[in-house]
Amino acid sequence: MQASALPVFFDYLTSQLEHAPDEVRRLFHGRGRRWSGLEQLTCDWLQGQLVISLFKPVDDGFLTELQQGVERFTQQELWLQKGGRCVLLQHRYQDGAPAQVLFGELEDAPVVTESGLRYQLNLGRNQNSGLFLDMRYGRDWVRGQAQHKNVLNLFAYTCGFSVAAIAGGADNVVNVDMAKSSLSRGRENHRLNGHNLNQVKFLAHDIFKSWGKIKKSGPYDLIVIDPPSFQKGSFALSKDYKRILRRLPELLAEKGEVLACVNSPMVSSDFLIESMQQEAPQLQFIERLDNPPEFADLDCESALKALIFK
Predict the structure, then answer these.
(1) In whole angstroms, what is the distance from residue 239 CA to residue 276 CA?
(2) S-adenosylmethionine-dependent methyltransferase domain location, by residue (predicted)?
């Protein structure tokens, strides 16, 4: 990371914020490796709050230049026009991803909008805010496919796919995730959108120990699989993903669809396609969803992979 590259960062930030919709959006994605010297820097616009994330340590000179750049940025007329209130710097490379306020006062539980749907975030306490912005097109796709369908959302986290499915007219959604706190946030996300919670189930279970309970609410017309790349003691992508895929035939309705996702730069689309052929050959690869343009990457296989099977 190079302090001398920061003027490029702030110039790009200005141009992106100027054209940003009144929704949550990534403004700068250095991890796509398109900006030399800024490869471990990202910036998200949360409708009035700017979250800058560092993914590797930087020297004091870089931090000083970043702070001074933030001061100049927040003095622009554009910042006032867009309702800018706070700039948060998150050190993602440290345990607990500690954060510090560089400008203004932090609203740590903001409600933001994506594709017209509302989600509550959690800032400054956890590594992730509660909504993965690179999955926007995936949620949009689910919303467009969900009419009158029974949907299973595995590794549901805060239930973004579930919110999109109900908004798209799904009859029922079953969310499965080990973290009760994440599912509680998911329940709140549904409430924020005025959804009927009688259509939504929240199962705080280990997926691999709960196939019987999951199967009871099936068969499913649409299954979403969006696991973490690694979760100590519970999930290792390269080993455990196949254990999920081999269960699909007994869970999926006739003509059912699967959205299978992976966001590890170490795992390619071919891994998912070949694993599906091995474990559930009845399912055929249809297409890979595009990623939002703001997440452009020099190597598309290093970015999010969201694949549709039928």
Answers:
(1) 13
(2) 25-310
Q: How far apart are CA 160 and CA 202, in angstroms?
A: 13
Residue 202: phi and psi, rounded to 5, are -125, 110
- If one counts every other C-beta atom within 10 angstroms of the C-beta of residue 43, the result is 21
Predicted confidence at residue 267, as pLDDT, reads: 87
* Tens of pLDDT, residues 154-199: 999 999 999 999 999 999 999 999 999 999 999 999 999 999 999 9
Q: Decide: 289 and 308 in contact? Cβ < 8 Å.
A: yes
Nearest to 224 by CA among 162, 274, 154, 304: 154
CA-CA-CA-CA torsion for 260, 263, 265, 266, nearest 10 degrees? -50
Q: What is the pLDDT of the chain when averaged over all its residues?
A: 93
Mark whether 219 and 189 lie in a shared domain: yes
154 and 227 inside one domain: yes
Alpha helices, DSSP H only, in the chain?
6-19, 60-73, 77-81, 136-145, 160-167, 180-192, 211-216, 237-245, 248-251, 269-279
Task: Look at the pTM and tell me if it is higher than 0.85.
Answer: yes
